[in-house]
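Reply to dn_fold:

You asked what the input looked like. This is it:
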Amino acid sequence: MCLGIPGRVVEILPGYGDQLALVDVEGAVRKVNIGLLDEPPEPGQWVLIHMGFAVELTDEAGGERAMSGLELMGRSRGDAAADEPESGP
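and this is what came back:
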């Protein structure tokens, strides 16, 4: 597992080559590029986000482990949601 910001996919945005999704990161919904994933995620699935790109599919437990790792590095849950840049138009 890579270290990234975990989020739950809300929906795949139409257009954009099906490479943008709305992802809920600790209550903040943002656009995330999903083009690097081997398979597009379904709404409800969890992804790990780095620099506005989903880099790995995970599950809720994996998302919790990633968030715990960020907290060990001194990042609060609110910081993670606020710091991740928004991708796309």
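The beta strands are 5-12, 20-25, 28-33, 46-50, 53-58.
Hope that clears it up.
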